[in-house]
Amino acid sequence: MKKIVQCMLFLGLLTALSACGDKVTPEDRLSDYIGHWNDGKFTEMYDDYLTKESIDAYSEKDFAERQEQLQKDLAIENLKVTYTKPEKGTKWDKEQPAEFPITVKMDTAAGPVEFEKTAKLLYEERGKKKNWYVDWDPSYIFPDLGPEDEIGISRKKAARGEILDRNGNPMAANGTGYNIGIVPEKLTDESKKAEIASLLGTTVEAIDAKLGQKWVKPDLFVPIGKVSKDDGERIEKLVAIPGVGAQETPMRVYPYGPAAAHLTGYIGSISAEQLEKLKDKGYTETDQVGRRGLESILEDRLHGKDGISIYVKKAGENAETVTIAEKAPEDGETIRLTIDAAIQKAAYDAMKGEPGTAASVAPASGEVLALVSSPAYNPNEFITGVSGERYKALEEDENTPLFNRFAQSYAPGSALKPITAAIGMEAGTLNPAEGLTINGKTWQKDSSWGAYRVSRLHDEAPNPVDLNKALIYSDNIYFARQALAMGKDAFTAGLAKFGFGEEIPLAVMDLKPSQISNDGKIGSEGQLADTSFGQGQMLVNILHLASMYEPFLTDGTMYKPVLLLDEEEPQPWKEQILSADTASTIRTILRNVVLDGFAQSANLDDIPIAGKTGTAELKSAGETSGKENGYFVSYNQDNPAFILAMMVEGVEDNGGSGYVAGMAADVYRSVAP
Asked: NTF2-like N-terminal transpeptidase domain location, by residue (predicted)?
C-alpha cells in the first residue's frame, strides 16, 4: 500500500512539472534566447532553442562557428538585442507562430549597425518534451543575408599624412616609385635571375617563390621588388634585361634623401610584434609603420584610419551587393615642421659627408630650422627594402651613417667661451675692458696643481688680454682665470641659467641633455678651469648649443626649441639670463672674432657673419694629442634670422675649427636671398 501511494505521488509530481512546462511562454523562451545571443553563446542557442527545421537546414558550423568567426572578423562589439514585450495578458495559440519585433544593435569595424526584425517562435514537440523554438535563418545575422549569400569586408586604404617643412616643401611625401617585375614567358635566359636578384638585393630563391605563386601565368607581370624613382641607374640596368619591366606604384618618398634622413626617418612593413601591439588601432599585416625619426615618433598622427565596408554578396551570377555598414577612410594628418628645408640641405651638403652634426634655430622664437646628422643613409633606399648585405655595409662604415649625431652630446670646446664670459660679466667678476697679463703657452695657479697646466694655442696674443682679445685668440688661460675668479658655485649657477643639467624641452624628439660634468658638479680647480673652455666632463647637445647663443640676440631670453609649426606661440625656456649691456658686448666681440680672429673662412664680403669657433680635444689618458672636433656657432649680424651651430669630427688635419667656419659660410651663401 505504501509503495502504491509513493508511485501516485511521483506521477502527480510529473504531471505538475509537465503542467508547469506547458506554462513556459514564447516570451520566456525568446528572453532566454536573446540573453544567450547577447552573451555570444551560440552553441547553446543552436542546441536548445532552434526549431527542428532550422537545425535540419543549418549545421552547427553554419550557425555557431560562423557567427563566432564573424564577431572576430568584423570586430563586433557591444552587441545588444532587445525585443518588444507583448501586451499584458496575451494568449498564445500553440498552433500559430508567436511573433516579436526585435532590434539588433552592434558596433563593427565599419561603424554601428542597427536593424529590426520579426522573431518567430513555433511550438514543437521534441520527444516527450514540448516547447517554443526559434524559427531561425541567416537574416537574424544581417537582414539582407540569405542562405547562399556571403558576408564580405573590404578596405580602402587611408593616405599617410605627409611631413612638410615650414614653407610647405615635402620632406616625407606620398609619391610614386616602381614595381620591378618579370613576365615569365619573356625571361628566356634563366641565368639572368642572379643578376636581377643582385640588383634588387634579394635571392634567386625568393624570385622563384614569387614566380611560383598559383595566380601566375606566363604572360602576366609578376612583381618581385621595388625601386625608388631616384634610383635611375638601377632601374635602367633592370629593365635592360629581357623579360624585366617596371610599373609605377604608390610609394613613400623622401625628397631630401640623406640630408634629412635622421630627422624624418622612414617607414617599413609592420612586423608581427608591432601588429600585435597595434591591431586594436586598426592596423593590418599589409600596413607600413614609422621605423625611425619623425615617421616613428609621429606615427599616431601620420597613420590614417582605413575605410571599411561590410557587405552582403548575394548569390547568383551578377547578383547585387548590399552594403551593411561603411566607414570612409580618414587620411593621416599632414604635419608642418618649423624646419627650413633649404637650411637643412645646405648644412648637410656643406659638411661634405664629414662626420658631424649641425642645428639651426630662429633666435626670436626657438623654432628649429635644421637638425642635421652627417653622414647619413638614404631613406628612399629603405622604403624599397634594403638588403642584408647593404645594411651590413652601412653598419660597418667607419663614419657610422646610421648613427644620429644631433641626438647626442659632445664636448663643446671653445664654443662655450661666450657663455663663460656672459656668466662672469653677470656675476660681476669679469670686466670685459680689463686686461690680464698672460705669458707663455701654459699656466697654472700654483704648485698645488701638480702636473696640471692650462694650455693655449696662441701665445702671440698681445698683453694685456681683455675679453675681446681673449675671444679673438680663443685664450684658454684667460677663461680659466676668469672661472677661478668667479668660483665654481657662481659658474655652475650661471650654467644652470643656460639650461645645463635639464632635459631639452623639445617635446617630439629625445635629445641627450647637456651636462656640466658626470655628476653635475665641479670638484676641483682644475676641473673648473677645464670646464670654463668646454672641456673636462662637459658635454653639450648641438641644438642646445645653438639655443645658448639666443640670449646674445634677444637681450637675455632663451626660448624652448619648437619643431612643430602648429605649436603654441614662442615660450621662454630661460629669461633674464643676462643684461642687454652684456648681450651687446658679446655681439660686438663675436663679429670681431670673424673679422680679426681665426674664422677668416667665414669672413664674407657680402654677409657679415658673427660667431665663435671652438676645438674640443679628445685624447685618452697619457696621450699628448688626440682627435679634435671643430665647432662654429654663428649668425648674420645684420639679419640674425637664424643661429647655426655646426660640429665636425676629426678636424685636426683639416685646419681645425676654421675648416668648420668655412662650411658654415657655404650655408650662408646657399640660403642668402
From this structure: 25-148
